[in-house]
Design a protein that fits this description.
Blueprint lengths: L2 E6 L3 H17 L5 E6 L47 H5 L9 H18 L4 E6 L3 E5 L6 E5 L6 E3 L1 E4 L10 H13 L2 E3 L17 E5 L3 H10 L6 E2 L5 E2 L6 E5 L27 H9 L6 H24 L8 H10 L5 H10 L9 H5 L10 H19 L6 H16 L7 H11 L4 H12 L3 E5 L3 E5 L4 E5 L7 E4 L1 E4 L13 H8 L18 E3 L5 E7 L20 H22 L5
Parallel strand pairs: 1-2, 1-7, 2-3, 7-19, 8-17, 9-12, 9-17, 12-13
Antiparallel strand pairs: 4-5, 5-6, 10-11, 14-15, 15-16, 18-19
């Protein structure tokens, strides 16, 4: 009987797994026959999020030169390095541009086709444009995989789940908001992928309350402005089409994610990891009980990011420091994170407070800031965004890029700790995965044109039963409220195996798969095997991607940054191939 693997999910993670399967197959499995079944209702390569059939106005959130699907020697993996082109090299475009998602979808389709070809003639790939409903079968035997629209299940020796981001049923608050909207004839759009949301009910000229100021908001902004016929002239001024609604946007922080940094690295890199590396993670894992993120992990991250920041400041901008780097480094290493001694050291060594790293202040930029009126808030937010754009495109502030590299290093270490909660992922995205600079310049133009209005920080949404409208207010302008007949939750659904719309994951949960406190599928960080509620790894079921406790940073990997997601794909592919090889060597009676 031919060995068989079912891969559920044909997007970037499924494609990356196939690339690693092909790279490791000659050594670990040879030329034995193998069936690979790829199941996804969306096109292989791009999958749902990166499919080519979406608005050309939507951009990637990374520069073309910063996107690769291929490993290099910086990846800590056992399998062979198989180099390949970045998106910029493959498409022949300027590496500093932010390409469309359509372009990325075409690149991913090519990578998928290359991976399939590299599997060789002994491997047959079967594409199934449908969904997996459930998986059955004993731990010690072949798995049965039921597909929507197919009576008989697929039989598989192994199943690999590469499902990507998950849809979720609304939580209690969203159900209440939806019920209120239904009763009063209002529009309520719950958390969703913006490109998939039906925006037609948002009427021209009418106010829309938008809760969320991250990347989902940027997509919403684009589709409701340029997507409705508006345009920017050569000076950057926005000329409305008249079909735009008025977007009143606020969030917990009250500001958009920081702009992508608009320059490349030059000079000496900070030697990372330093304070949060494998030894530190080993020590955390050896402690009794699960490490507490704020108490045990965050101080190490704080110190690691501070080290990256000050290493760059002292080595690239020594004129803004008051002591020599070796002296500072020695004392910095000896001081506890957040301690008075560390604060005193930094204050003495770095004269300008603007050159010091304060992560708590970065996370809460409007805390304690109050504006006299809504108009004053608009001026204040425009000044904040302009300042952020200027800083993120000025090499004089290159310690910001060092902190970005530190964030990538930290993420690579956190994978071994499993689920660390949702706050860290939000903080990472806010600092390191913000919109391209041109998008924030467009936001400023839309604010000038009156198409976007800022609500500020600490946004709350209320339901006014008497008036039959939504009301939004925040801490930035106390006592001022905005009313609207439409509310958009501009963010992705929170991961939740209890509320997921995936029948496959609901069934896995019912059958005993372990779920983390944040609603993620628990997996062994070493190779992605799915864990049950006793912590046992399933010998025949694997999972990779953002629906798991070993989710990696961002959607794609920058060249020469270690690529933790690549290492995960490699470890999973090698474990799968080793299992299949050993299975083929067993006596028939086994």
């Amino acid at each position: 009987m031919t060995a068989s693997v079912v891969v559920v999910g044909a997007g970037p993670r499924g494609t990356g797994f196939l690339e690693r399967l092909a790279a490791n197959l000659p050594v670990l499995y040879g030329d034995q026959p193998l069936d690979v079944h790829l199941v996804d209702p969306h096109p292989p390569g791009g999958g749902r999020i990166w499919r080519e059939e979406q608005s050309p106005l939507l951009w990637m959130n990374s520069m073309a030169e910063d996107v690769t699907m291929f490993t290099d020697e910086t990846v800590r993996q056992e399998g062979p390095v198989r180099p390949g082109p970045t998106l910029a090299e493959w498409a022949g475009i300027d590496g500093q541009t932010f390409p469309s998602r359509q372009a990325q979808g075409a690149y991913l389709r090519w990578v998928y086709e290359e991976a399939v070809a590299a599997l060789g003639p002994a491997v047959t790939v079967h594409e199934h444009r449908t969904r997996v409903l459930r998986i059955g079968g004993p731990r010690e035997g072949r798995q049965r995989v039921w597909l929507e629209g197919r009576a008989e299940p697929l039989s598989a020796d192994l199943v690999v789940l590469t499902l990507g981001h998950l849809d979720a049923e609304p939580d209690a608050e969203q159900r209440e908001l939806a019920d209120f909207a239904d009763r009063h004839g209002l529009v309520h759009l719950p958390p969703d992928f913006t490109a998939d949301a039906d925006l037609s009910a948002l009427r021209p000229g009418e106010p829309v309350i938008v809760r969320g100021f991250g990347l989902a908001f940027v997509d919403l902004m684009v589709l409701l402005t340029e997507g409705r016929g508006g345009r920017y002239d050569e000076s950057g001024t926005y000329h409305p089409s008249g079909r735009e609604p008025v977007l009143h946007v606020g969030s917990r922080r009250g500001v958009p994610y920081h702009s992508k940094i608009g320059y490349t690295w030059q000079g000496e890199r900070p030697p990372l990891p330093r304070f949060f590396g494998p030894d530190a993670v080993d020590a955390l894992l050896k402690r009794p009980g699960r490490p507490d993120f704020r108490r045990d992990v965050w101080p190490l991250i704080d110190k690691e990011l501070g080290f990256a920041h000050y290493h760059r400041l002292f080595t690239a901008h020594p004129g803004r420091t008051a002591v020599d780097w070796p002296d500072f480094e020695e004392k910095y290493a000896a001081a506890d994170a957040g301690s008075p001694e560390l604060h005193a050291l930094v204050a003495a060594a770095v004269p300008d407070p603007a050159d010091r790293l304060d992560l708590e202040a970065l996370d809460h930029p409007l805390d304690g800031v109050r504006f006299a009126s809504s108009d004053a808030l608009q001026d204040g937010l425009r000044a904040y965004i302009t300042q952020d754009l200027t800083r993120r495109h000025d090499r004089a502030h290159s310690p910001d890029l060092a902190v970005f590299l530190g964030l990538l290093s930290v993420y690579g270490q956190l994978l071994r700790l499993g689920d660390v909660g949702g706050w860290w992922h939000g903080f990472f995205s806010y600092l390191a995965s913000g919109p391209p600079g041109p998008r924030l310049r467009q936001l400023l133009a839309l604010s000038d044109a009156g198409v976007v209005r800022f609500l500020g920080a600490g946004i709350t949404v209320e339901r006014d039963e008497d008036k039959g409208v939504f009301r939004a207010g925040g801490a930035s302008v106390p006592g001022e409220w905005t009313e609207a007949r439409a509310l958009v939750e501009a963010r992705l659904p929170e991961p939740s195996l209890e509320r997921t719309r995936s029948p496959l994951l609901r069934a896995l949960h019912r059958d005993g798969a372990e779920v983390s406190a944040s609603g993620l599928l628990s997996v062994d960080p070493a190779d992605g095997r799915v864990l049950d509620r006793e912590g046992r790894p399933h010998p025949r079921r694997f999972a990779l991607g953002p629906h798991t406790t070993a989710r990696a940073s961002g959607a794609f990997t920058r060249p020469r940054t270690g690529g933790p997601a690549f290492a995960q794909n490699d470890a999973c592919a090698r474990a799968a191939l080793s299992f299949l090889r050993d299975l083929a060597c067993r006596p028939l009676s086994a």
